[in-house]
Amino acid sequence: QFPALFNRRGEQSKGKRRFAPSPRTSVKFATYNLCVLPGPSSLTPKGSAELQLMQAGLGKRQVSMPEDMDHKEMVKLLEDEFPKLRTLTGGWLFHKAT
Fold first, then answer.
1. Distances (CA, A) of 81 to 54, 74, 78
2. Residue closest to 74 by CA, chosen among 42, 41, 30, 37
3. pTM of the shown model
4. What are 34-42's contacts with CB under 8 Å, separation 24+?
5. Tens digit of pLDDT per residue, the chain (98 long)?
């Protein structure tokens, strides 16, 4: 919806180029625990509910993502981890667990 927010710095046009772009440095990765649920919920599933979600192709997974990942790469990574997300129409909603 806002892909310009996820562009890498080198991809944005800034007029006349005077210097060559610096080579990419080592990429830092961050690991996240994700839980895909069939609908909105204020609690994470426990026990048998978690097993049912896993059998349905949803549930908890630990995903490692580069910190400089753009929007398209993130969508592809999540669709690879959770193939059921490919068939959804509309959007996804992320909630941060505390």
1. 12, 11, 5
2. 30
3. 0.59
4. 34/60, 34/61, 34/62, 34/63, 34/78, 34/81, 35/59, 35/60, 35/61, 35/97, 36/61, 36/82, 36/84, 36/85, 40/93
5. 566 666 665 555 555 667 777 776 778 888 988 888 888 888 888 888 888 988 888 888 899 988 888 888 988 998 899 888 888 877 777 777 66
Query: Where do we find the tokens 């978690």?
Result: 50
Residue type, 28: K
Tell me how far apart the alpha carbons of residues 54 and 3 are, in angstroms, rounded to a whole number.
31
